[in-house]
Amino acid sequence: MVVGGLFSGVGGIELGFKQASYEIAWANEMDEKAAQTYESIHGHPLAYNYPLEQLIENLNNGEIELDPIDVLVGGFPCQAFSVAGYRRGFEDERGNVFFRIIDILRHFQNMEGGHMPRALLLENVKNFRTHDDCRTYETCVQVLSEMGYSVFTRIMNTCEYSDVPQNRERTFMCCFLGESAWNDDALTNEERATQCPRTQAFSNNFPQIKENTRTIQQLLSDIAPDEFYYGRDKAMYDMLARDITRVDTIYQYRRVYVRENQSNQCPTLTANMGTGGHNVPLIRTPEQDPDRMFRKLTPKECFLFQGYPDDIQLPEIANCHLYKQAGNSVSVPVIEALAQSIRTALEHEIVDQTDIQQIA
């Protein structure tokens, strides 16, 4: 099965699908630094390293052509839809990035013979479903339903659905073509199962919560370069010495205080954790040297806490970019589990592409 990626970042979603034996046809990401990391991780350049709007423009004017795919994936930014635009059928909302996904789907829909992806996997923040009094989510469901897709939505926590010890909750929307009836709340469960066999198969084979067996210590390096340590020359040293007392957990430095994670999990990694004083993940080392007792996680450790391979190769770019990329990424094992469930659903009933278009 073949995957295409939007808002790819460093390619965490694509990597999860690759580990589930999918082929990656192409991916799009506008950030140049993320594209460098994508190439280091995947071993080949990003296909389209420019804004999605430009990709769509190039499609429309015939400069490029995207290969048809089975699954379209992407972690898109969360943006509100205005009440006015919402009531006017979204005509005022064309600047919202969600509609660029719809533009890509329409491009495939308009291809000769029709080649709409059979499934979508979209990722967003935990509160996406309730964002803007639920209008954002409801708009997305309505538009995807109009395109012929079911929308199956769950919040998944990395530490529950993988062996990676990070407390990271994210919303995932899994959608299947030709099964928009799934979105009709008036249908009974039996009617849904009959009319939406692939979505039902996905639901029946949704990833199971698993026992977390890895500890944070297994992902930490025994020693790190001096630049990651907070010694006695740092203004916050006395606070760290007072509040960071355990060596078996990860703390967060939040500018004016330190917060301890008591669940022996890495707290949610954020895009701004490398900017100096907000959400910086810190540990206390076993060392007795006062200048090497406290340090922040290294960029590689942050990627490991997102489930990237132990032998991951990162490019030689500024650490601030790597921290941002790790914080913006997905947890790869969670994606791999979802990709396997999507494969099971798509193989549940093999439907000819022409039949899919008729259903949609």
Largest sheet: 6 strands, mixed
CATH superfamily of the largest domain: Vaccinia Virus protein VP39
Average pLDDT score: 89
Percent strand: 5-15%
Task: Count up the helices.
Answer: 14
Low-pLDDT windows of residues: 82-92, 350-360
- The structural domain count equals 2
Q: Radius of gyration, Cα only, in angstroms?
A: 22 Å
Helicity, as a percent range: 25-40%
* CATH architectural label of the largest domain: 3-Layer(aba) Sandwich
Shape: globular
- Oligomer category: single chain
Protein traits:
alpha/beta, Rossmann fold, four-stranded antiparallel β-sheet, 10 strands
In short:
The protein has 360 residues and is α/β, with parallel strands linked by helices. It is 34% helix and 14% strand.
Task: Explain the overall architecture.
The chain contains 14 helices and 10 strands. It has 2 domains: 2-212 and 330-359, 3-Layer(aba) Sandwich (Rossmann fold); 222-297, no CATH class. It has a 6-stranded mixed beta sheet with strand order 2-1-3-4-6-5. Strands 8-7-9-10 form a 4-stranded antiparallel beta sheet, with helices on one face. It has 360 residues and is of the alpha/beta class. It is 34% helix and 14% strand. Helix 1 packs across helix 13 and helix 8 (189-195) crosses helix 9. Helix 1 (12-19) links the parallel strand 1 and strand 2 (23-27). It has helices at 12-19, 32-42, 52-60, 83-87, 98-110, 135-146, 158-161, 189-195, 197-204, 237-243, 299-304, 319-328, 332-348, 353-359; strands at 2-6, 23-27, 71-75, 119-125, 152-157, 169-176, 251-253, 258-260, 280-284, 294-296.
